[in-house]
Every structure is written in C-alpha cells, then in structure tokens.
Amino acid sequence: MEPIKKQGRHFVLVHGACHGGWCWYKLKPLVEVAGHKVTTLDLAASGIDLRKIEELHAFHDYTLPLMESLPQEQKVILVGHRLGGMNLGLVMEKYPQKIYVAVFLIAFMPDSIHTSSYVLDQVNNIYIPFAFLM
C-alpha cells in the first residue's frame, strides 16, 4: 500500500443517521487543502434528499446514493460516522475493488465474520427505534 501523501486521494465522507453531507463542512476544506478530492453526499431520505425514510424498503435503498457515487476506475477512502459505518460495511461487501481503505469514525462496524445485514438485525433486536432503517 503506497503512502497517501504521494498522490492526492479521493475521500468519500458518509454521514450518520439524521444528518446529511452538510455535517462535514469543517472537515472537507481541510482535506481538500491537503491536496485530496472530497465527496460528501446525502444518503437516501437524509440531508436535502426529499424522500421520507418510510419510502425506503431496505437498508440497501438508504445506501444507494453512496454506491452510485463511487467512481469506476478509482479506489476511494471511505469515512463513515456512526450509522454511516454500516453503509461502509455494505459497500465494502459489494464493491471491495473500489475501496482503498475504510475509516470507521465512532461508527457501527461489522466484524470479519458477519455481514452488515446481520449486524443491523442484531441492532434491530436490541434497539427497536432503529427498525425504520431496516
């Protein structure tokens, strides 16, 4: 793995529940001034995405904006905050060839044995208020 400093990298910053891409407004310019590209996005029914969470049928639907934002020929550094860590887990399972590294910032993190959906099921069994995210 080559050092990050040798070339600018592409960071994709993923917000947690009840937030949007706006929550990275202080970090984004700092990473950009260091010579990197930064993408912040709104997951489905978050930020300025006008859909309601009740319109989403699966966690995959919630994560779709992230999956669609990944470039075809470039590996990205994913950074997920809180529930955004579960989005990272799902994307890492589906598109491992597109991920340079993933950073879980105070985030839910699937283990190396179970899938993201397993972890979400376990959270749902313990914390019923998260059921809307399933």
Automatic annotation (TrEMBL):
AB hydrolase-1 domain location, by residue? 10-107
GO annotation terms (biological process)? jasmonic acid metabolic process; salicylic acid metabolic process
Family matches, as InterPro entries: AB_hydrolase_1, AB_hydrolase_fold, MES/HNL
Q: Which domain of life is it from?
A: Eukaryota
Which molecular function terms from Gene Ontology are attached?
Answer: methyl indole-3-acetate esterase activity; methyl jasmonate esterase activity; methyl salicylate esterase activity
Q: What is this protein called?
A: AB hydrolase-1 domain-containing protein
What is the scientific name of the source organism? Solanum bulbocastanum (Wild potato)
